[in-house]
Amino acid sequence: MAKKQRKLVYNGHKGLPVGTRCIWCGEQTADPAYIINPGGNPLMACCCEDHFQKTNTFVRRDNKIRPVFYVVLFVFVAIDLVMIGYNMTSRYAYLPLLGIALTVCAWPSVFTHYQFYVRLGLVKTRRIIRIIMLCIAVLALASTLSVM
Ligand SMILES: [Zn+2]
């Protein structure tokens, strides 16, 4: 499949759609020579060799690691749902939320698909998700401690 698409589009000659941003850093200087997913939609491209390599490494690692985090996340969500279901308001009520927040913080791409990175770039998007999740984690921890 990938082979076919590679042949179909972009040999480094055709330009990218106007306003294509580097999937890694988010700069508006994506180069047709560094396309991550030829023929893909939306097209993901990078601005330089360095970012191209980094993105490729990330995608490879992400494909391997992501399923593990899905499982972890699922466990926390399940615990959380059980607690809500039984209307538990114990001191541990917010711990699953803390777990979820820390899981997403550790590997932000569990929540996102690559399309999500196109606008701001991978690095910034991950930073934003991490900050939001840290806030949630702190709130969850504070709630846990205040109940105790
Ligand atoms: Zn870049």
In short:
This protein has one domain (2-147). Helix content is 55%, strand content 0%. The protein contains four helices and no strands.
> Globular, elongated, flat, extended or rod-shaped: what is the shape?
elongated
Number of strands: 0
Please, how many domains? 1
Tell me the series of helices and strands, N- to C-terminal.
Answer: HHHH
- The number of helical segments is 4
Uncertain runs are: 1-13
- What class, by secondary structure content? mainly alpha
> What kind of sheet is the major sheet?
none
Bound molecules: zinc ion
Strand content: under 5%
Q: What is the CA-atom radius of gyration, in angstroms?
A: 20 Å
What is the average of the pLDDT values?
Answer: 83
- How helical, in percent, are the residues? 55-70%
Q: How many angstroms separate the termini?
A: 56 Å
Structure, explained:
The protein is mostly helical and 148 residues long. The model is unreliable at 1-13 (pLDDT under 50). It contains 4 helices and no strands. The protein has one domain (2-147). α3 packs antiparallel against α4 (122-147). The radius of gyration is 20 Å and the shape is elongated. Helices cover 55% and strands 0% of the residues. The protein starts with a helix and ends with a helix. The longest helix is centred in the middle third of the chain and has 37 residues, at 49-85. It has helices spanning 2-8, 49-85, 95-106, 122-147. The structure holds zinc ion. Residues 22, 24-25, 27, 46-48, 51 line the site of zinc ion.
